[in-house]
From TrEMBL:
Keyword Amino-acid biosynthesis: no
Organism: Geomesophilobacter sediminis
Record-given protein name: Molybdopterin molybdenumtransferase
Functional description taken from the UniProt entry: Catalyzes the insertion of molybdate into adenylated molybdopterin with the concomitant release of AMP.
Record keywords: Magnesium, Metal-binding, Molybdenum, Molybdenum cofactor biosynthesis, Transferase
A GO CC term attached to the entry: cytosol
Chain ranges of the MoaB/Mog domain: 172-309
Entry's EC annotation: 2.10.1.1
């Protein structure tokens, strides 16, 4: 049996990064940038007005009214401006030759055919200088950053239509168990609906990866091997159920019969002790327990960091906050217990309320929760004690 940290280390040492590819900007959103994005241009490309106002040469001011010689909206071609005159200019228009200063409309007053300046003016004011925002050759987004709205916007502003990014992991999901019913079937005594595959698929999508459903394998070695082999076409396989010590738990045997290298089985934690991890060729295979909460907790701790690493992410683990428990909690078992709870921000810091029912078969302990609190064996905490709560969203 390994610890949570040992299991994570073994997994992260083995999972390979996925290939990178250039993809259209919208498809790149949510992926990780594979190469530094470098601007081939200065931005702004020319000195540009930052205000709707008037542009002129500061040194030609002589206290007299300035005749206005033209109008320059954004997008128009600028023509040179004679010293001692001003041009009406709009925000975003290039500052024309002969001008170095802009005053906003509100700081001027009309005077015959021209204007007078009503406020104090500084030379060069309200002009965004060429290269002030970005310098040619500068890295504007570093490799390893997650691509979001601002990053695709930046790429578009450089004239690009695609970005080099890591591939989305294709994650095959296999459920095992004779008791399982297909989704949509009414649950009945002794039979349960396969909820794990859809739960895990939703988590996979949230990470920016792509789920692929392998369906349900009956409790039979050959049936499990056939489905598992189909999953090896994907970038990773996640199996649920059939990984404990039961007479019909065939998952480990199926992995090994396909030539897989079993790297660990059983992690010292609750829920989710019977977790196995294997490499079958280059494909990581995660065998999670069938209990729905154990499967989701196993996904959080082991599958999520692995998929993130494969997809080029640098931050692989969830953030934690120090939080006050709102009621006494205890772990009477001999395994570290990951309690599901709900963290809220309060005036005096974060508080976490641990779900009342913590059975690993009870999805209800997770549906209302947004955090996991690790309680060591035999720990007993009073209300108000401080814990680390790992935030799940
Ligand atoms: N003698 C022992 N028995 C068990 C041990 C043990 O150490 N010794 N460990 C227990 C723990 S802890 C867990 S967790 C479970 C995990 O067992 P398996 O991974 O083999 O899972 P199954 O037995 O196939 O299923 C457990 C449970 O989960 C339900 N299930 C299975 N698949 C799904 C699915 N796709 N969707 C929803 N629910 C599913 C299944 O019906 C069972 O109720 O083993 C303990 N036993
Ligand atoms: O590890 Mo199991 O999830 O305690 O039931």
């Amino acid at each position: 049996m390994v610890t949570i940290e040992q299991a994570q280390k073994i997994i992260l040492e083995r999972v390979p990064p996925l290939p990178t590819q250039r993809v259209p900007l919208l498809d790149a959103a949510g992926r990780v940038l594979a190469q530094d994005l470098v601007t081939p241009y200065d931005f702004p490309m020319v000195d540009t007005s930052a205000m709707d106002g008037y542009a002129f040469c500061f040194d030609s001011l002589n206290g007299e009214a300035l005749p206005v010689s033209g109008f320059l909206p954004a997008g128009a071609e600028p023509t040179p401006v004679r010293p001692g005159t001003a041009v009406r200019i709009m925000t975003g228009a290039p500052v024309p030759q002969g001008c170095d200063t802009v005053v906003p409309i509100e700081e001027t007053a009309p005077d015959g055919e021209g204007i007078v300046l009503t406020g104090k003016v500084r030379k060069g004011s309200h002009v965004r200088k060429r290269g002030e925002d970005l310098r040619r050759g500068e890295c504007v987004v570093a490799a390893g950053r997650v691509i979001r709205g601002p990053e695709v916007g930046m790429a578009a502003s450089l004239g690009m239509i695609d970005l080099p990014s890591y591939r989305r992991a294709k994650v095959a999901l296999l459920a095992t168990g004779d008791e399982l019913l297909e989704m949509g079937a009414p649950p009945m005594p002794g039979r349960i609906v396969n909820s794990n595959s859809i739960s895990l698929a939703a988590q996979v999508i949230t990470l920016g990866a792509a789920p692929q459903f392998l369906g349900i394998a009956r409790d039979d070695l050959v049936a499990t091997m056939v489905k598992l082999r189909a999953g090896l076409e994907s970038d990773a396989v996640v199996v649920t159920g059939g990984v404990s010590v039961g007479d019909r738990d065939y998952v480990k045997e199926a992995i090994e019969s396909l030539g897989g290298e079993l790297l660990f089985w059983k992690v010292n934690m609750k829920p989710g002790k019977p977790v196995a991890f294997a490499m079958v060729g280059n494909t990581p295979v995660f065998a999670l327990p069938g209990n729905p909460v154990a499967a989701l907790v196993g996904f959080e701790l082991f599958v999520r960091p692995a998929l993130l690493k494969m997809m080029g992410h640098r931050a692989l683990f969830r953030a934690s906050v120090r939080a006050r428990v709102t009621a006494a909690v205890a772990n009477r078992g001999d395994r570290p217990h990951l309690l599901r709870g709900s963290v809220v921000a309060q005036a005096d810091g974060a508080a976490v309320t641990v779900a009342a029912k913590q059975s690993s078969a009870n999805l209800g302990s997770m549906t209302g929760s947004n955090a996991l609190v690790l309680l060591p064996p035999n720990a007993a905490l009073e209300a108000g004690a401080m814990v680390d709560a790992m935030l799940l969203d």
